[in-house]
């Protein structure tokens, strides 16, 4: 059983990483996390003592080797990343690609059961149809380029060395502990406070997936060491427009706020089509999401009501 395995999570203080850590500590006392000295641990503050923290920079190859040799992890969940769509810097490439290489090389020396890498739907670039793992990658930002390089690096080493490395390409994850400046937390918090909404185009679309379903995908992947080199889309297989997201949140919060469409400019990567083909994950991982958009947003809103102090 996975609960008896020694787990290592990078990116444990991030949104998805923290939710995964919370799930793991329920089942095991063998949860090691890698974080930077200046990491903000607000997402895992209440469970921090239940983890085994290790402070280092993944770009420091020697420190990574030393730490991995000490931990000897059996299951590695790699969620650490640098940057986002808006940050175009050398740091994106250094951390996402070379940091991943350092971790893979260090783990290869000690051996492990499974390495679950984290990719991004941004690797695909804009498409006019559901995105498939077989599609040509057309990243349109430094972050997307870095994530594509990271995924391809993991796939290459998995195939060349026959290593148990799998990549999950995440679509638009939302839910408890998401960053306060992101779309869903901004909409929910503003509605709960009765503040009017500044919005872009109502037709902008994303494949929104609830974080609990994503955590389930990581746990499923961790039980599949014989799928070396495989990449899986993790979304819902349904896209939702911003107009739909806003209408559901307003209905669930039962508030009257102004919807100021077009008050904000569209970003270069905004599109009316952004949809995952998740047939491969369903077929091979035996995974599928359990939350539709309304159910996921309902749970998210309930959590925000109970934890508003975290977003002050």
- Assign the CATH class of the largest domain: Alpha Beta
Annotation, overall tally of beta strands:
13
Report the span from N to C terminus: 40 Å
How many separate helices?
Answer: 9
Q: What CATH architecture of the largest domain do you see?
A: 3-Layer(aba) Sandwich
CATH homologous superfamily designation of the largest domain: NAD(P)-binding Rossmann-like Domain
Low-confidence segments, ≥5 residues, pLDDT <50?
none
**Could you report the average pLDDT, rounded to the nearest whole number?**
93
Tell me the domain tally: 2
Order of helices and strands: EHEEHEHEHEEHEEEHEEHEHH
What profile does the largest beta sheet have? 7 strands, parallel
Describe the global form. Answer: globular
Which percent range fits the helix content? 25-40%
Tell me the Rg in angstroms. 19 Å
Give the tags.
about 15% strand; 2 domains; Rossmann fold
Write the layout of secondary structure elements.
Elements: E1 7-10, H1 15-27, E2 31-35, E3 52-55, H2 61-71, E4 75-78, H3 90-110, E5 114-120, H4 142-161, E6 165-170, E7 172-174, H5 183-192, E8 197-199, E9 205-206, E10 208-210, H6 211-221, E11 231-234, E12 240-241, H7 242-253, E13 259-261, H8 279-285, H9 293-306
Parallel strand pairs: 1-2, 1-4, 2-3, 4-5, 5-6, 6-11, 7-10, 8-13
Antiparallel strand pairs: 9-12
Describe the structure.
The protein folds into 2 domains: 2-173 and 209-237 and 279-285, NAD(P)-binding Rossmann-like Domain (Rossmann fold, 3-Layer(aba) Sandwich), CATH 3.40.50; 179-206 and 238-274 and 293-311, UDP-galactose 4-epimerase, domain 1 (Alpha-Beta Complex). Helices cover 38% and strands 16% of the residues. It has helices at 15-27, 61-71, 90-110, 142-161, 183-192, 211-221, 242-253, 279-285, 293-306, and strands at 7-10, 31-35, 52-55, 75-78, 114-120, 165-170, 172-174, 197-199, 205-206, 208-210, 231-234, 240-241, 259-261. The strands form 4 sheets. The protein has a 7-stranded parallel sheet, with helices on both faces. The protein has a two-stranded parallel sheet with strand order 7-10. A two-stranded parallel sheet has the order 8-13. Strand 5, helix 4 and strand 6 form a beta-alpha-beta unit. The termini are far apart.
